[in-house]
């Protein structure tokens, strides 16, 4: 038994020009959430409870793209999704298309614990939230001023990228000003990296009993079609946990779904006998094709691992033997 | 090597005493859809087109739980879901919560080909259907009298269970009553195909679970759970959705071949054995034209054919109609 371990992320694919102040702000949130998880683990909390608790904190903070601060659909609304998996008995809960639930991950937990199903979406999920009496707020609570501006830029960039196929820097110099600087031409999900909202959040935990759990929550993709479901709520894609490990992914959702990224980390350990970091490296190198993504993982032996093929991933991890790290770049 | 095709119309607790009026039309549909798929493969249609074509036909048959004939939610409405995946490119498309689209599988194909996304649900999926001008109908088209009756019985069974069998039933799902002949929870449809060059595709479509909560998503549209295809194999699963999702059934058949070196038959059997008894079945074809159709339920409506002339249509373990017919003519 290797003791407890926890790892968290706030999204992969970070603008290399992200102002230092924003970087420090993100690191502070990651550090604070990590401390909350560490304290819970020290007091003997179960992995699944810690994963939910930490993701709730990440959702509640507007810095990342989940809960308050979620990315906006093409219509300017918020549609949040989340999932949670307890490696103990492989229990699962997931939600999509939430527009008023303050903490989507906790509704996913209730789907797991209190419904006969494992995945509820849109109005049915909202009805369930009301039946369970979880905290709901007006949709506007989730919409930040910054994201309204980002949606506008995303729509401009999209029309440029998809309609005219001309380099962004030649056409939007005046309208987008200093925000859209396409010096590297870097893109994620068809958006310039400066507009792409990477900050899905997730947490993977192993408790002192060796049980693993993972949870992921997101507002999805900036300027997404209404009704779009990404990888975060999909068990095996964005989230997975079993008796060997727990995994939470982030990045280009479509690539993560095609690569069944989270399950494949576990499958490589189970079926090919790889170690945790080996399995993580393999899926990042072999399972993403052209896609850009990152993931965090823990093993039942108390190891932590991460991998990403993007520029940067907001992340943090800690283990029982005193190791603690918060980082953004490679 | 050679082409192969397999299809299913759901796995579950199908009683051997299934009345003829429920059995005959389903067998006839399986036979007809199999012939359709065989003809398309012989005409060198791409497997992706073949699985879509076959699943459309299965959706149109009111005796299976997909498209017309979909089972009803607790509100008496229809919420269909479907998923399609191409093995070579791993391109995929999925829809959930569709209530007016005649052929959900074709909408899933459009999501794959005409949007930057993979998966659209509920109002957004319906709006996309209208934008793409796919055939839509009043939701009443999908609702059969038989399913209205199934919902009534499921609700009754539920109520009885909640009212009179309190002590130990917190987690037990409602059991079908004897009156509904035990086949109310099944009938998801799916098809997998491979051509002579080893190109693979899978498609699955369903109305979900009788008396399901509004908004419930099952395994069918979840890539890796109910549906998966890559360059090794194509898989479509059916059964108790919640168990299929947590076991990532479809992806695991492929992963066992890829990472553990199992043959497809071994991989498919391994995965079905790992799911609790009476919960799942699947159909699969491999790149070199093998077929597997394991299930751990009492039965699974299924059919398959391969280029060398083998074909099979079956429901239970014991009563399989084997045919060795010359398809090469």
UniProtKB/TrEMBL annotation, chain A:
Pfam family, one: Asparaginase_2
First-tier enzyme category under EC: hydrolase
Catalytic activity: Cleavage of a beta-linked Asp residue from the N-terminus of a polypeptide
EC code(s) of this entry: 3.4.19.5
Site label Cleavage, positions: 199-200
Record's subunit section: Heterotetramer of two alpha and two beta chains arranged as a dimer of alpha/beta heterodimers.
Key words, A-Z: Autocatalytic cleavage, Hydrolase, Protease
GO molecular function list: asparaginase activity; beta-aspartyl-peptidase activity
Name of the protein: beta-aspartyl-peptidase
InterPro entries, per the entry: Ntn_hydrolases_N, Peptidase_T2
Active site, renumbered: 200 (nucleophile)
PANTHER family to which the protein is assigned, alphabetical: ISOASPARTYL PEPTIDASE_L-ASPARAGINASE 2-RELATED, L-ASPARAGINASE
Entries under SUPFAM superfamilies matching the protein: N-terminal nucleophile aminohydrolases (Ntn hydrolases)
UniProt-listed GO biological process terms: proteolysis
Binding site residues for substrate: 228-231, 250-253
From TrEMBL, chain B:
Catalyzed reactions per annotation: Cleavage of a beta-linked Asp residue from the N-terminus of a polypeptide
GO biological process: proteolysis
Organism: Dioscorea zingiberensis
Assembly behavior: Heterotetramer of two alpha and two beta chains arranged as a dimer of alpha/beta heterodimers.
Marked site positions, Cleavage: 187-188
Ranges where the record places region Disordered: 163-184
Keywords carried by this UniProt record: Autocatalytic cleavage, Hydrolase, Protease
Key word Lipid metabolism present: no
Coiled coil (UniProt feature): none
Enzyme Commission number: 3.4.19.5
Pfam assignment, any one: Asparaginase_2
Record-given protein name: beta-aspartyl-peptidase
Active-site positions on this chain: 188 (nucleophile)
Residues holding substrate: 216-219, 238-241
Cited PANTHER family: L-ASPARAGINASE (PTHR10188), N(4)-(BETA-N-ACETYLGLUCOSAMINYL)-L-ASPARAGINASE (PTHR10188:SF6)
Primary enzyme class: hydrolase
Transmembrane segments: none
One term of GO molecular function: beta-aspartyl-peptidase activity
